[in-house]
Amino acid sequence: MISAISCNQLTKRFGDRIAVNSLTLNVPKGSIYGFLGPNGSGKSTTIRMLCGLLAPTSGSGMVLGLDVMTQSEEIKQRIGYMSQKFSLYEDLTVEENLDFYAGVYQLNAAERKQRKAELIEMAGLTGREKQIAGSLSGGWKQRLALSCALLHKPELLILDEPTAGVDPVSRRIFWDVIHELAGQGITVLVTTHYMDEAQTCDWIGFIFFGNLLAQGTPQELIRRMGAQNLEDVFIDLVKQEEARLGEAGKRGEGR
Ligand SMILES: Nc1ncnc2c1ncn2[C@@H]1O[C@H](COP(=O)(O)OP(=O)(O)OP(=O)(O)O)[C@@H](O)[C@H]1O
Questions:
Q1: Phi first, then psi: what are they for 124, rounded to 5°?
Q2: What distances in angstroms separate CA 63 from CA 3, 8, 60, 76, 166, one per listed residue?
C-alpha cells in the first residue's frame, strides 16, 4: 500500500496541554479518509501539522513523501487545503477569485485558462463566472472554494469541515465531487461531524482528546463495535473513553 499520509507518534503540545497525542495513522493513496471526533479533539491541529502550517512537538509525519518537519514549503505547494471558513474574496467575482488563486499558485496563462474552465464546469459554476462571490449561496461558495484549492492539481486534498452549515442538497453535490476526485486518484483527508458523509469514506479515524481511538473502514468499525451505525460507534467510543479517563482521574493518572 502506498501512503499519501503516514504519521508516527505525531504529537502537539500547547504548553502543558496535549492537543494531539502520539498519533499514528496511514492514509492510502487515492482513498477518502474521514477524520472524525468531537469539537476540540485535535483534528484541526493534526491537519495544520500535516499541511506544514504548525510544527509538531515530536513524532514524525510524511505527506506525499515529504517530511512535515523539514519540507513544509514543498508540502504546501503539493496539497490543496480548504478550511472551515473558505477563504474567498467576497467582493470579487467567481472568475476573479479563481484568477487570484491561480496567481498564488503561479499558473501560467494557458494553465490558468484551462484549469479555470475545467473547475468552473466541475463545480457547476458555469454561467456564474461574473457573479460576486459574496452573493453566492453557501453551497456555491463552498464549491468555488474547492475549485480554488484544486487549481494547481494537488495530489492530496485536505478539507477541514468543508460542509459545515451547508444545506443537504449542496452537501450531496459536494460529496459527489469529492468521490469523483478520488476516482481520478486524488487522496482526500476530510473532517466532518456528519455521519452520513463519514459513511461514504473508504477509511475512518476517530480522535478524542488528541488520541486516535479507532481506525478502519466504516463497516469494520460498525462490526467491531457491535453497533447499528457510525453514529453509535462514535457515541460508544466517546463514552468508553470518558469512562476510562474518569477511572484514570480517580487513580490520579493524567491524560
Ligand atoms: N494555538 C493554540 N494554542 C493553544 N491551544 C490550542 C491551539 N490550537 C488548538 N488548541 C487546543 O487544542 C485542542 C484541539 O483543538 P483542535 O482545534 O485541533 O480541535 P478540533 O478537533 O479541530 O475541534 P473542532 O471540531 O471544534 O474544529 C483544543 O483543546 C484547543 O483548545
A1: 70, 30
A2: 8, 12, 10, 10, 29
61's grid cell: 509525519
Instruction: Yes or no: say if 186 and 30 are a contact pair by the CB < 8 Å rule.
Output: yes
Whether 192 lines ligand 1, by a CB cut-off of 6 Å, is: no
Give the number of the atom of ligand 1 that is nearest the alpha carbon of residue 54: 1
Identify the residue whose C-alpha is closest to ligand 1 atom 8. Answer: 45
The residue that leads in pLDDT, 52 or 21, is: 21
Q: Give the CATH number of domain 3-250; options: 3.40.50.300, 3.30.1490.100, 3.40.50.970, 3.40.50.790.
A: 3.40.50.300
Output the nine-digit C-alpha cell for 219.
463497516
- What is this structure's pTM? 0.93
- Structure ipTM over 0.85, yes or no: yes
